[in-house]
């Protein structure tokens, strides 16, 4: 009898193991149901636009739906926190920008820590900004601007889409490296800032190359420099900040994908490989190039180091400029 019962027990264990294997097999490999990409910004912005491009192509690559959901608010904190508290299974992802790396220093009371609560998946793309000044301002170059700002500290001003945004931080980095005092005027959106520069109410702003190109070409604003390491293919006649004499200056808008901490490595690696394939597609890179956007490719480990470096870079600017959120 004991031998019989022992046999039943062993058989039962094998049956359970087989059932578990069959259940896992039935579930199938990742992804086996829709994946949500949370965008912690409003609809229509660059993060939203490129998240939808990514979702479409990830869906085509995997045969599974990737759905974009906007959860804006509190300087991107609401959507970011939502993903931080989501299950680490690869089915809830975060489309982030360098707004989040700035927030690590700017927002002391945020309910998450980027490097503690997330896993780096992959970068997506980056784009330089362009520094423009209003028509009528007698400044023709970055060196003219620096001389004017030093001659009259605090009299020139620049607009941005809000405190801590890439447009704002680009201005603060310029002030720090050029050693000038230019007053920051925050707006609730880049559109409002842009309107007042065009209207002559504000002297200048850092803005997206894709947005400003037509305005530059029609001479409604004057471009002084772009903010990447190389000249923009969209504005090839405009020097970079380094070429204009501000050494060490780089300030781009970049996007990337994060997952909750402890997301399985095989899921992270799978997503990283798919995203690298998508951003390398010649049709995609060709379209992006027309807007001055460059694909980014890194391993999860390289992207982790990139995030740490960006947090450190902007943290120093936030502290040295004593930037506060109103």
UniProtKB/TrEMBL annotation:
Q: Which InterPro entries match?
A: BUG (IPR005064), Bug_dom1 (IPR042100)
- Database matches in Gene3D superfamilies: Bordetella uptake gene, domain 1, Periplasmic binding protein-like II
Can you tell which superkingdom this protein's organism belongs to?
Bacteria
Q: Is the keyword Signal assigned to this protein?
A: yes
In the UniProt record, the signal sequence range is: 1-26
Q: Record's Pfam families?
A: TctC
Q: Which UniProt keywords apply?
A: Signal
Do the record's keywords include Magnesium?
A: no
As for family, the record states:
Belongs to the UPF0065 (bug) family.
Record's protein name: MFS transporter
């Amino acid at each position: 009898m004991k031998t019989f019962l022992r046999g039943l027990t062993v058989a039962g264990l094998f049956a359970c193991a087989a059932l578990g294997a069959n259940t896992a097999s039935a579930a199938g490999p990742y992804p086996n149901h829709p994946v949500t990409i949370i965008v912690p910004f409003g609809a229509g912005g660059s993060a939203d636009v490129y998240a939808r491009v990514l979702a479409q192509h990830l869906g085509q690559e995997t045969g599974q739906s990737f759905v974009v959901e906007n959860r804006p608010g509190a300087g991107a904190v609401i959507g970011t926190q939502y993903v931080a508290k989501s299950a680490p299974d690869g089915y809830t992802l975060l489309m982030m920008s360098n707004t989040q790396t700035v927030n690590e220093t700017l927002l002391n009371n945020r309910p998450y820590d980027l490097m503690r609560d997330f896993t780096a998946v992959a970068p997506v793309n980056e784009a330089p900004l362009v520094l423009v000044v209003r028509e009528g301002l007698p400044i023709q170059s970055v060196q003219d601007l620096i001389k004017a700002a030093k001659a009259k500290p605090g009299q020139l001003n620049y607009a941005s889409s809000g405190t801590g945004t890439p447009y704002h931080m680009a201005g603060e980095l310029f002030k720090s490296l050029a050693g000038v005092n230019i007053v920051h005027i925050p707006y609730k959106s880049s559109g409002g800032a842009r309107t007042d520069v065009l209207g002559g109410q504000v002297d200048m702003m850092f803005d997206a190359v894709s947005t400003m190109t037509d305005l530059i070409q029609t001479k409604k604003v004057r471009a002084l420099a772009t903010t990447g390491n190389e000249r923009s293919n969209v504005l090839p006649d405009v020097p970079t900040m380094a070429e204009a004499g501000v050494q060490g200056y780089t300030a781009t808008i970049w996007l990337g994908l994060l997952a909750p901490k402890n997301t399985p490595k095989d899921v992270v690696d799978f997503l990283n490989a798919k995203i690298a394939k998508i951003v390398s597609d010649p049709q995609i890179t060709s379209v992006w190039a027309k807007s001055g956007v460059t694909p980014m490719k890194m391993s999860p480990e390289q992207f982790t180091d990139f995030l740490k470096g960006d947090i450190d870079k902007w943290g120093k600017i936030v502290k040295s400029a004593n930037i506060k959120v109103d």
